[in-house]
Design brief:
Layout: E1 6-7, E2 10-11, E3 17-18, E4 24-25, E5 34-35, H1 48-67, H2 72-79, H3 82-95, H4 99-110, H5 130-136, E6 140-156, E7 161-178, H6 183-201, H7 204-213, H8 215-227, H9 237-242, H10 250-263, H11 268-284, H12 286-295, H13 309-313, H14 329-332, E8 334-335, H15 340-343, E9 345-347, E10 363-364, H16 366-386, E11 395-399, H17 404-410, H18 416-423, E12 427-430, H19 436-451, E13 455-459, E14 466-471, H20 476-486, E15 505-506
Parallel strand pairs: 9-11
Antiparallel strand pairs: 1-15, 2-5, 3-4, 6-7, 8-10, 11-12, 12-14, 13-14
């Protein structure tokens, strides 16, 4: 059973070109000879095959979003229980939708809890709002009750003030019926709604998107996708998500970003697809599912959600450096090359230790430094598309490895971010010096690499310009090769080669 998907890689063109006299010349800045397909500026070259590969990687990336939840395991047990399965099968028969799709929606919406209630209003196993429930034919009934209170009221007369007791009846509403809380009614109604949305929008993927985003939202996003360069007729949700970029189909790109900032609804279809796969894993291999849940569990207690992908990738067996003089640092970490104009990043790392140890803080794993060089390369390319005459400002790296002894010196509990730095697999970029255009390019590149499973990243705190970044375990071999090329460890080929086809590589610990 495959628990994780494939990581598509493709070889790019060689980075050497010809000068005016026909001689070979090297570029002014680092351009890796091995490229990731359809990333950054190359989204403009998304073929049908590449789009399918990106969609598959996006589905795989949703593993983190689902399995980090404390109820992922209990939810799988509830969803596959005989009682709910009978309801799912009946709903599928009536709606014409697959059982696996209906149960995946219920799994994501409530973890199979019939009494689940969202603070924003939706309720029940299918998390239905009141307005949508009525359009589905579900009944929500209230009855008026009265609360009787007594109070002493002063009554003035000519001679003196007297008091008398007054009873007051205050009306209030009581919920006496809510079909959303009855799975036998809510599940078939939700399935019928999905079937209607499929008929209305002409695609099951859009119907699933509508379940999370709303019909008006889908109408808007579908229209923008139809207008986008590279879209088919009818368009797909995958095209909606991947055809836009800061340099192409910009209106679509901005609309997707707005929806992502609102509620991540553009990723909902991918998440439902992954939920179907995960529920099948639970049926086929419960022990494997439990191991996956444990892999994605937070580090500090069973109930804690893993805060971000790096906290999952870098826990457990990850090597942690305890002091700046660890014996294995020389074997596992390397000094970061410092060539801002060529590599696209500048080192602003401050060593809190004595000056003799400064060099130890300028180290990281080859994979982390390769990821840094690749991010700078893609950011520079995107900036050149957005502002051809603009100047690229090298990315400021403000933190590389931090040994545990430094955290002990400062005191306090060890948080996931600090432990990640102790592995040497992450680095921090301060984006505050960047222009708004270059920041947009950087954010897009990080998102693009992140959604395809190559990177994990998180802002240090809400509103912070400091970004905490690290390569996924599955991509470290690729980024190590990038580092070797960037640092001169391996020379690029001396003649241009044609772009290669997809070369999938098996992954481990993928999201």
């Amino acid at each position: 059973m495959r628990y994780r998907g494939l990581l598509p890689l493709a070889m790019g063109v060689a980075i050497l070109g010809l000068g005016w006299d026909g001689s070979l010349r090297r570029p002014a800045y680092f351009e890796p000879s091995e490229r990731l397909s359809g990333i950054g500026v190359d989204r403009e070259q998304l073929s049908e095959l590449l789009l399918a590969a990106r969609a598959e990687a996006m589905v795989d990336s949703q593993t983190f979003s689902i399995m980090r939840e404390p109820q992922a395991l209990a939810g799988a047990q509830r969803i596959t229980s005989p009682g709910l399965q009978a309801i799912f099968e009946k709903a599928a028969g009536r709606s014409g939708l697959p059982v696996a799709l209906i149960e995946a929606v219920a799994y994501l919406e409530s973890w199979g809890d019939p009494h689940a209630a969202s603070p924003t209003g939706p309720k029940g196993i299918m998390q239905i709002t009141q307005g949508t429930a009525r359009s589905m034919g579900l009944r929500i009934g209230y009855a008026t009750r009265y609360r009787v209170t007594t109070q002493r009221v002063a009554v003035r007369t000519k001679r003196k003030t007297r008091f008398r007791t007054v009873r007051k009846r205050t009306p209030y509403s009581v919920l006496v019926r809510d079909d959303r809380l009855n799975p036998a009614l809510a599940i078939p109604a939700a399935a019928a709604y999905l079937a209607r949305m499929e008929q209305r929008f002409g695609g099951r993927d859009w119907a699933i998107f509508a379940y999370h985003c709303g019909e008006g939202c889908v109408s808007e996003m579908m229209a923008l996708t139809r207008q986008a360069s590279g879209a088919t007729d009818p368009p797909t949700v995958a095209q909606m998500f991947f055809l836009g970029s800061p340099s192409r189909n910009r209106e679509l790109y901005r609309a997707v970003r707005r929806q992502m900032q609102r509620d991540y609804s553009p990723t909902y279809w991918f998440r439902v697809m992954r939920a179907q796969q995960l529920l099948q894993i639970w049926r086929d291999d419960p022990a494997g599912f439990r191991a996956l849940a444990e892999e994605y569990r937070g580090q500090f207690g069973n109930a804690l959600r893993a805060p971000h992908r790096l906290s999952v990738w870098l826990k457990g067996g990850a090597v942690v450096h305890h002091t700046v003089q660890d014996g294995d640092v020389g074997d596992r970490l390397v000094i970061a090359p410092d060539n801002p104009e060529y590599l696209g990043y500048t080192l602003r790392v401050e060593s809190p230790a004595a000056a003799v140890h400064t060099e130890a803080y300028l180290r990281a794993s080859p994979a982390a430094l390769g990821a840094l060089a690749y991010i700078a390369f893609e950011t520079r390319r995107m900036l050149q598309c957005l502002d051809p005459g603009g100047k690229f400002r090298p990315l400021e790296v403000v933190s590389l490895v931090k040994p545990i002894e430094e955290h002990d010196r400062l005191g306090g509990a060890k948080d996931p971010e600090f432990l990640a730095h102790a592995t040497g697999e992450v680095f921090d970029i301060d984006a505050s010096p960047l222009s708004s255009t270059e920041r947009e390019a950087l954010d897009f590149v990080l998102d693009d690499l992140g959604w395809n499973g190559y990177l994990g990243f998180v802002q240090e705190s809400p509103g912070s310009n400091r970004i905490h970044i690290g390569p996924s375990p599955a991509s470290r071999e690729f980024f190590t090769r990038v580092f070797e090329e960037a640092s001169g460890g391996s020379q690029p080929p001396l003649s241009a080669t044609a772009p290669g086809s997809l070369s999938p590589a098996s992954t481990s610990q993928r999201d």
